[in-house]
Amino acid sequence: AHSYFFDVSRNGRVMLLAADTGKVASDFNPYRVEDGTNPVLLPCSEEIALARVNPVSLSGDGSVGVGWMEFADGTGTGVLWPSADVAVRLGAFSSDEWINPLGISRDGKMIVGSVAPGNPFAMSVSTLVAEPLTTVRGWASDASGDGAVIVGVLSPAKSGFSGFRW
User: What is 70-137 written as a DSSP string?
Assistant: First the structure.
C-alpha cells in the first residue's frame, strides 16, 4: 500500500493522509490519524463511483479538514470533513465547475482554492457559499489564522504567474 501525508495540525497530534489500501474502491482514500493511532477512513458521502479522494488541509486544531473527490466520469468536487465521521460535498458556481480546495484557515472557518477551470475562491465554512475572488486565472492556496488574509497565485498575463494577496 502507498500512503501520502498531506497536512498536520498545529500541535502535531492530527494528520491527514491518502492511502491506496485496496480496501475501498477508489485509488486513493482519505484517512485521519490522531496521536499516532491507526488511521481512520474519512467518509466520502457519495454513492457514485469514485476514482480517488484526497485530503488537502487541516484546521489548526485538526478538527476540520478539506479535500477533493474525483469521480470515475472525470468530474469532481471538494469535500469538507467538519468531523471525522461526517463528509459534506462542496458545491460550485455552476454544474460545469467544481471546487478544488487547497487550504483552510487555522481557525477552520475559511476554505480557499480554485474553481475549475481555474479561478480563485474563498468559502465560509458557516455558509458553504463559494465567493469568487477574481475572474483572473489562478488559485488561492492558503488563508491566515482567522481567514482575513488570503494568498495565492494569479496569471494576469498569458506569460506567467504572480503571487497575490487578498
Answer: EETTS-EEEEEEEETTEEEEEP-SSTT--EEEEEE-TTS-EEEEEETTTEEEEEETTT--EEES-SSS
